[in-house]
Structure formats: C-alpha cells, structure tokens
Amino acid sequence: GAGVSQSPSNKVTEKGKDVELRCDPISGHTALYWYRQRLGQGLEFLIYFQGNSAPDKSGLPSDRFSAERTGESVSTLTIQRTQQEDSAVYLCASSSQRGGPGEQFFGPGTRLTVL
Amino acid sequence: QKEVEQNSGPLSVPEGAIASLNCTYSDRGSQSFFWYRQYSGKSPELIMSIYSNGDKEDGRFTAQLNKASQYVSLLIRDSQPSDSATYLCAVNSYSSASKIIFGSGTRLSIRP
Questions:
Q1: Alpha carbon distance B93, B99 (integer Å)
Q2: d(CA A85, CA A112)
Q3: Taking CB atoms and an 8 Å limit, are A50 and B98 in contact across chains?
Q4: Residue A18: its pLDDT value, please?
Q5: Measured between CA atoms, how close is A15 to chain B, in angstroms?
Q6: pLDDT at B2 over 80
Q7: Which of A19, A40, B31, B34 could form an SS bridge with B90, CB 3.0 to 4.6 Å?
Q8: How far, CA to CA in Å, does B19 sit from each of B43, B48, B58?
Q9: Which 24-53 residues of chain B touch chain A by CB within 8 A?
C-alpha cells in the first residue's frame, strides 16, 4: 500500500520568500506529525494533528511557521519570510489509532535550502 | 537535562559482535518506548517497541527496559554492515499522550 508522501522532495528558495510543504499521510491514519531535522541533528518536533485539529503546536519555532490539515488527510506546513536557519529536512509522519503515537510512519522528507 | 538522552557516537563494532545502544529518559510517567533506525539520507523507521520492564526479542534485536532506572537499551546480535545507521530512542510524553520525544540518536558503524 501507499506510504506517507511529501512534496516537493527538494526546495531551494531565497531568504524572505514563503514556502509551502505538503504531506499526504497513509490513508486512514488519524494522527499526523511534522518534524524538522537539521544536518547531523535529531528530530525536532514541530506540531501534531489529531484529525483536523492541532492539540500541540508547542514545537513551532516562531509565528512564521503555521500548519493546517484538511479532510483528515493532507497537511501543509507553511513557512513565511524564510530565513537561512530554516534550512533543514522537514519530515512528516502519520500513525493510526491502533498503532498509537509511537508507531509512526515517516515520509521521505522535504529538503529545504534557504539561500 | 534533555528529556531523552543518547550517546551520539559514533559507536564502532566489529561485524558479528553485539552492538549495545543505550538511552535514558527524564519523565518517570513515560510508559511507551521505541527504537527507530535511520540510514544516512533516509527517514526513520520503527524497529522495536517495548512497554513493560524486561527484555523483548525480535530476531537479532533485543530491547531492554528498566523503568526504575529510567533506562532503555537496544542490543543487536551478530551485527552486520547493513546495521550501520543512526538509532533513535523515542519515549512517549506523559504530559501529551499523543506525542513522542526523540533522542538525538547514536550513530552505529559496523566494521568488517
């Protein structure tokens, strides 16, 4: 079956531009997570969705970051006025009700480079 | 103190030996523990989960949990070059049940 997909796979942008990253979770997975991973670093939690609502946005680094999820499916992460420190791989993961939050399936990531 | 701590490595182990990866966590209320493997340039994938004290075996992998010591480990027997990867320990957040906290990972290198 289809796994988690993310687009674009790579994004190069200029400082100050806005970017939108997309995540398609596994069909039927109710929970969706966004993480950021800088080169050589661990996973930094950004936000998670249960259905279409976001009970925990505590990881969003600043008000330039926002995310939404619609139809209990696709999610978009938007970064406004990008800065060079936003350069990283952005990973999306989903999990099912049955598997619980620990059994997350990850997408291939979007590598964001801000020049 | 970090919520989930791991030695960053690299940990170098000869092929065929046992690799031992360790993780400590700070939240005494945590109940669920996970090991993810991340190959270079790839996304993490779940390899083991453990929920109660003791050992859990799956093939060449054994997860060990000691809640009293707030310690979880992963043993890899008969290490193969294909086991070379970064291993991430993850622990559920007691305060936010639908969230897990990842450690920064231990880089494991299996030398032929």
A1: 6
A2: 10
A3: yes
A4: 98
A5: 24
A6: no
A7: B34
A8: 22, 15, 15
A9: 32-34, 42-46, 49
